[in-house]
Amino acid sequence: MRLSTRITGLTGGGSDGWDILRKSRAMKANGHDVVELTIGEHDRRTETEILEAMHRSALGGHTGYPDLPGTNALRHAIAARVQERTGVRTALENVIVSPGAQSALFAAHTAACDPGDTALFIDPYYATYPGTIRGSGAIAKAIPARAEAGFQPDAADLAVAAGGASSLLINSPNNPTGVVYSRDTMEAIAEVAEAHDLWVISDEVYDTQIWEGEHLSPRQLPGMAERTLVAGSLSKSHAMTGSRIGWLVGPAEAMEHVENLSTHTTYGVPGFIQDAGLFALQQGAGFEDRIAAPFKRRHAKVAGYLAARGLSVVPSRASMYLMLDIRGTGLSGEDFAHRLLDQNLIAVMPGESFGAAAAGHLRVALTVDDDRLMAAVATLADLVGALATSAA
Questions:
Q1: Which helix (H) or strand (E) holds 370?
Q2: 295 to each of 33, 209, 237, 367, 370, how far by Cα in Å?
Q3: What backbone phi and psi angles, to 5 degrees, belong to 352?
Q4: Does the predicted TM-score (pTM) go above 0.70?
Q5: At the topology level of CATH, where does 64-284 sit?
């Protein structure tokens, strides 16, 4: 039987970007002690008090079909958090709870694009973005952000690409680069969106991992609230990756239709998980700072160490990642990552997993304890130095 081109074409005929991760997991399953610096998984698991809240809710009977847009209590809490952090009025009707930000991004593109519409996204990008867009029936079109410009999208490039498009997906703080888009960049995005009548879909899951400066949501800019859909999540902010709880924020009319989409797809998030999410949000900013603290510390330590070794690190002000430029080795990011894994049992993500603009780079996830992390980074730096010397 023939399968649909929509599902067989999710990866565009190429890799889905996760080859190194699968290889490292297979090696670990065969008994190898791999240092895995690949995905953004906290090395501390969900806090006990959150799990206890989830347990109490489940035992209390909140195990039936869930409220599809999310419980009113959780939606109010999300709206209050968003309004407090951005200053933009946000109410219950602007929020739909989703099974993680990934589901929210799919819903956003389904809301913004008809089949065959062009949906723009910035390269480098999180590896699932093109497939998410293709899964919604839209045509994925990348706009490169250049390493030489600090991976800030260029206003002229945005304007050229925007003609005839329906949406623009952005991610700041950015995964994989750790770059935070400047106010100038965000204002250029807003100007292009208004000029070309684009929806802006903003993935803001790393908004609690800002190490320097401030995060600006496009929704905060004049005239943008009515054309912006914001995906958020408790995965990174509260170490709840496996709970699959996130949200989409946008105009009330759009959220009514997204709720209808949920009826026909996910049918909501289990009530006991929503109650745990509400409890997590009620712990306040201090709790979020505690979850973020190890990554802030490691980010500073690794960036300082690599700079002292003379290696080129992408200027990063956020996230649980650092991106390293290894083009001087003469190897692609993929070739280097495979060599590092095969020779040294250290797994990092090649830049090519995140788009052509990140080719010749590596993304290092700061997701193991400090001592193990620094030992792995020293080995990585040694290999970069040796290969660069040979290539010179």
A1: helix 370-391
A2: 23, 8, 11, 8, 10
A3: -60, -20
A4: yes
A5: Aspartate Aminotransferase; domain 2 (3.40.640)
